[in-house]
Amino acid sequence: GSLVAAVLEHSGRLDKEHLGARVGRLSRRGEVCTVINKKYVDFLPSMRGAEELVAQGEQNNPAPQCGTFLWDSVWMSVCSSQIWVQCKGRAAVTAVCVWPLQFDTALKEFHSALLEEQYVRAAQQLEKARSSLRVLESRKGFELKILKALGRELIVQTQNIIYHLWQEWQKLIVWKLPPSKGSSSLEAVVLSELHLHTVPAQDEDAAVPPVQAVLQALAVLGELHYKLKDFGQFLLQYILKPLILHPSLEPVSEEQPDVFILRFRSQELALDEASPMEVFDKIKLVFEVLQKYLLNVSLEQPGEGRVTLAELLGELIWEELSDCLIHNCLVKSIPTNSSKLEQYKEVIKSTEEFEEALKKMQFLKEDTTALLKYACNVNSHFANKKCQDVIMAARNLMTSEIHNTVKITPDSRVTLPELPDPGSGDHLKMQRALELPSGVVNLGSESRLSPLTLSLPTCRISSSVQQLLQLAYHTLLEATASTDLCSLQLFNCVRDIFQLFCEVVPTYHRENLQKLPQLAAIHHNNCMYIAHHLLTLGHQFHSGSGGVLSSVAVTFVDLVPAFRRLGVECFLAQMRVQKGEILERLSSARNFSNMDDEENYRAANKAIKQVLHQLRRLGMVWQDVLPVNVYCKAMGTLLNTALAEIVTRIVALEDISAEDADRLYSLCRTMVEEGPQIFTPLLEEDKNKKYQEEVPVYVQNWMTFKELMIILQANLQEIVDQWADGKGPLAKEFSAAEVKSLIRALFQNTERRAAALAKIK
Q1: For a disulfide at 309, which of 191, 297, 474, 560, Cβ 3.0-4.6 Å?
Q2: 150 and 186 assigned to the same domain
Q3: Rounded CA gap, 530 and 565, in Å?
């Protein structure tokens, strides 16, 4: 009460001093009396209100409890401000007196509890002080400097208790980590240890406070979430994830009188991948010991009621832990064969038991079923994984070397597992096999087409392509024994394989296909081989399937033109390259003119030899690779290019002397004699004679070339006889203008030449 009176006295003194100054100034104007009367009339109600406030202050009796610098600061702040004028009622003034008092009292209690290591009571008193400060800050019209001082004091004391609590936490939870903390190698993680000093102490006077007191105090201060999040991340990184990622690790627990230790032991003989059941058992063991020594603590969480530490930790780390279990454990356990799907029920059961165990520990909520949902959806995951594995295997085959080949003959057989009976509902019987000739179509009845129908000619294909077709067959076979959804997914996966081939192979092997004629030929065969199988691939499995594949359009026929076009375009591109090289070599023959000049003759002869060497080399490269008919057509086309170029150059000559004609004939004879020898499609020499004798069938300009040779050595009458009024063999190969041009070049201008020219029409 005395402090309040002092405030009023101080206020009155300030009023009187202010009034005296005004009197001195106003006396000169004759207004002194009027001002004095008005001032005291205004001051009288304030004086009476102050007397009543003194009485209330004496009832609250704050002075004996405070008497501190803090209390003096409050009153000095009140007096130095204009609060006396701004306050609208006595309640506001009372609040200014009472709430700082409560703040001061709470801080005293906080310091006392902190010294006694009663962390929960200390945290509660600190929150009480924080509440008092919030009330003061919420009062409108208060602009007290003391509020900033109180706020700073509160921050300092909050950090003070948090520091103490974190020090206690580090005594309770001790991590022994390897020197290289960031390493996830087996050698590093096996050195990790967790020490829990939360074992109930036998000595009641133990210096370390109970873990519940520390955790509850952190919860009151709102700091538990941050500390628990850090603990959860350490638990994931150094305990839980290593157990999932390293099958050889086993958790080992050890209880001592004052500490519980969790460490690892590495098995020397361990599998490359642990089963989900084994991983679940290891994780469950870790949570059981944590539940016993740490996570079973019950806390009063502000705004949430009573919760256990296990619930709070589960909310923080379960999402990351479940993702790790799914991607590094459950995904790897998904069967790669539909016949093993039945065995997966054990994994589903183990997953359900694992989730139930965590729910009993209150680590998981009752409605949490992320792992179980994933495990139960095994059919979809099986299809996804199977498709992913098939696509990856197919891509590896597509990017492997093309030149590793196998020989395909019309009687080659493709070994396929027997398709199940549509009415039996049984799974695949992989033990039995149905061998189908590569050109035979099983129509699903006793009747079969001839083995020669749709037969593939003998050639060489890449072994990787043969494996690719086997992969497609077995994947479709898997589809016939799967659920409807899985069947369609696997069927589409096989289509994706072939579409991927059209994109990957030409791009990945582009440079080799352009430069190496043999690889271009093998790629041509590969495409034709795949197209050959695509003609009947869908029909075979449509007939043998009793599921959804029997009721939908299972066909690959639409892909056949694309594969044929892919193979043909690649081979034709290589043919254009070879044609270009032939023409380039013949361009150095100096147009076959002036053959009486030794240098020109040597140049022309060299060009002819180079062309023949190129064709022989191609014949060896493509030998036993291309089908015989394709080989002969390709070699005939290239030889025809050379012959047509030589004919064009010679026909264009304006003057051919007798010596020139003899030497041109010699060059042409070389082509005629050695040209057929390039036709060696088979390894057996004696079998190639047949194709060498059929050169005119494959070389369009062969007879034209031979007729040119006749003209070079014939006289005028022989040429006229060969023309035979446009009905002879010469007329079939050359036009009248071309024959006349050759006659003018070969013979001098005489009457006989004129007569001969007259007959050529």
Answers
A1: 297
A2: no
A3: 12
Query: Does residue 299 lie within any of the structural domains?
Result: yes
- pLDDT tens digits, 114-144: 888 788 888 788 888 787 777 777 765 555 6
pTM above 0.90, yes or no: no
Beta strands of 133-208 (E only): which ranges?
A: 173-176, 193-196
Q: 52 φ, ψ to 5°?
A: -65, -40
pLDDT of 75 strictly over 50:
no
Centre a 10 Å sphere on the Cβ of residue 23 and count the other Cβ atoms it contains: 14
Q: Are residues 148 and 187 in the same domain?
A: no
Residue-wise pLDDT tens digits, 14-28: 444 554 554 455 455
| Cβ burial, residue 604 (10 Å; 0-12/13-18/19+) | buried
Q: Is residue 15 part of a domain?
A: no
Shared domain check, 99 and 185: no
Give the span between the Cα atoms of 101 and 87, in whole angstroms.
Answer: 19
Domain around 282: 177-200+208-368
Radius of gyration, alpha carbons of the chain:
51
3-state secondary structure of 710: helix
User: In the prediction, which pLDDT does 215 show?
Assistant: 83
Q: At which of 368, 390, 423 does a domain end?
A: 368
| DSSP for 57-107, written as a single string | HHHH-HHHH--SHHHHHHHHHHHHTTHHHH--SHHHHHHHHHHHHHHHHHH
Rounded distance between C-alpha atoms, residue 365 and residue 266, angstroms: 33
The answer to whether residues 216 and 323 belong to one domain is: yes
